[in-house]
Design goal:
Blueprint: H1 4-10, H2 23-27, H3 43-74, H4 76-89, H5 91-108
Length: 114
């Protein structure tokens, strides 16, 4: 969650503290001059932030995949039960979606059902 006051006044994302406000806004303090960036952040700053975000994602991609694989290994039967329950409730909906997919694929010439 972000501080609503900071976002409304200067379009700056600041972590929320209480009641949707950061600690300074919650105490009623004014926005500090160095925070007064305005709504027009330069594209260089945005690109730098985007590059940092991509780098963090690349570093943590394998870690996240490992965590997901470990969870799935521990909860394989639970996940399968959830899928079976959903399919039992939505059997006709799933069959209709499958028929529609096959029809579109045949029209495109991608898939020929044997």
């Amino acid at each position: 969650m972000i501080c609503a006051a900071h976002w409304d006044r200067i379009r700056l994302r600041v972590p929320a503290y209480q009641l949707g406000l950061c600690a300074d806004c919650f105490r009623g303090l004014p926005i500090r001059p160095q925070e007064n960036l305005g709504a027009n952040l330069s594209t260089a700053i945005r690109e730098k932030a985007a590059a940092a975000s991509r780098a963090r994602y690349a570093l943590n991609r394998e870690k996240a995949a490992t965590v997901n694989r470990a969870w799935y290994a521990l909860n394989r039967e639970k996940a399968a039960a959830v899928k079976r329950a959903w399919y039992a409730l939505n059997r006709e909906k799933a069959a209709a979606a499958s028929r529609a997919w096959y029809a579109r694929s045949r029209e495109k010439g991608i898939y020929e059902r044997s």
